[in-house]
């Protein structure tokens, strides 16, 4: 294929270097004059954009091809750059082709210092980023679809948990044994604690849970189903701005559920008045979760949490979180702390 460089005298060193660069370039490069006529074009430009080399000498950029290069905004920017009034760095545009898909291009233009017998010269480099941009769009669309699918799954799981909780609650009303009702009610609350996490995850774009809102929602649900007189028993939440992953949130929620249920069952016999406080605060790289009541307190001589299903759940969940369980006399009442410190 014949060379595209126009054989004109080039006394200026910078012009000679520019023409040498264009001849050697494997990327699309143009040398334009002040009127945006093509002085020289690299072989890659001719091949990439299907330009006839014989059409190059004396042809304006806007007249190349079938007129697809006649883009007023690009034309204006190049004219301004040629006369030192603007600078093109990474200007992006779509080049609309008549018989092929459009190309997404990035333009860089630099004004060359003219020699004494030379007019204005403009070096224009072109990068075709059609494929990378298409891949980026595909990736963004995939991320968007996955996010929608994730939220849909969260909604469906939350709805399913609510149905299970409702079925358990119907069992509470129909079984005759007090012990069976108690077990069903406990299972109902455990399901609600997981459902609360799912509701918060459904509204999250990151898969993380804001613990203050989550614990508040969870304790409100427990209180509504287990506290008959809110003037007699109060359940309050004190949580900082911590955010936790979905897995950690489920474990923390189940721990809170077990401890609050245990406090409501055992800390206030004979219709005593009282308070239960759920507290969570970060401590450097660790955290402390505590549930404190001002009820009757631990039996005399007791040093550990009374063994049972709830105790086993708490110990297992704390172990999964790398935390330890501490039981203390709150004077009055009891404080159970789940401590995870480095």
Automatic annotation (TrEMBL):
**Origin superkingdom:** Bacteria
Provide the Histidine kinase/HSP90-like ATPase domain boundaries.
247-342
Q: Which SMART domains match?
A: HATPase_c (SM00387)
Its UniProt entry gives the catalysed reaction(s) as: ATP + protein L-histidine = ADP + protein N-phospho-L-histidine
The first-level EC class reads transferase
Task: Identify a single GO molecular function assigned to this protein.
Answer: protein histidine kinase activity
| InterPro entries per UniProt | HATPase_C_sf (IPR036890), HATPase_dom (IPR003594), PAS-like_dom_sf (IPR035965), Sig_transdc_His_kin_sub2_dim/P (IPR011495)
Reported EC number(s) for this entry are: 2.7.13.3
Q: Does the keyword Cytoplasm apply?
A: no
Keyword line: ATP-binding, Kinase, Nucleotide-binding, Phosphoprotein, Transferase
Stated name of the protein: histidine kinase
Q: Which species expresses this protein natively? A: Brevundimonas staleyi
């Amino acid at each position: 294929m014949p060379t595209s460089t126009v054989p004109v005298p080039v006394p200026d060193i910078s012009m000679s270097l520019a023409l040498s660069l264009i001849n050697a370039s494997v990327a699309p490069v143009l040398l334009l004059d002040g009127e945006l006529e093509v002085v020289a074009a690299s072989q890659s430009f001719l091949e990439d954009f299907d330009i006839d080399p014989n059409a190059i000498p004396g042809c304006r950029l806007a007249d190349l091809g079938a007129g697809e290069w006649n883009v007023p905004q690009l034309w204006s920017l190049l004219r301004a750059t040629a006369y030192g009034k603007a600078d093109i760095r990474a200007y992006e545009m779509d080049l609309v082709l008549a018989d092929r898909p459009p190309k997404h291009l990035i333009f860089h233009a630099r004004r060359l210092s003219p020699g004494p017998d030379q007019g204005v010269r403009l070096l224009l480099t072109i990068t075709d980023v059609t494929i990378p941009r298409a891949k980026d769009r595909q990736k963004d669309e995939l991320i968007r679809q996955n996010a929608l699918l994730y939220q849909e799954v969260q909604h469906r799981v939350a709805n399913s948990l609510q149905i299970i909780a409702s079925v358990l609650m119907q069992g509470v009303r129909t079984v005759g044994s007090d012990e069976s009702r108690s077990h069903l009610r406990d299972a109902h609350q455990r399901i609600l604690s997981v459902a609360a996490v799912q509701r918060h995850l459904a509204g999250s774009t990151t898969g993380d849970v804001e613990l203050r809102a989550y614990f508040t929602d969870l304790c409100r649900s427990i209180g509504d189903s287990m506290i008959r007189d809110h003037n007699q028993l109060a359940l309050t939440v004190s949580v900082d701005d911590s955010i936790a992953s979905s897995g950690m949130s489920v474990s923390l929620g189940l721990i809170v559920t077990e401890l609050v249920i245990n406090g409501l069952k055992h800390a206030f016999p004979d219709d005593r008045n009282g308070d239960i406080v759920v507290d969570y605060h970060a401590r450097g790289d660790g955290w402390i979760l505590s549930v404190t009541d001002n009820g009757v307190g631990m039996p005399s001589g007791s040093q550990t949490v009374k063994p049972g299903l709830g105790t086993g759940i708490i110990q297992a969940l704390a172990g999964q979180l790398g935390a330890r369980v501490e039981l203390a006399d709150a004077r009055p009442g009891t404080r159970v702390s789940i401590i995870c410190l480095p």
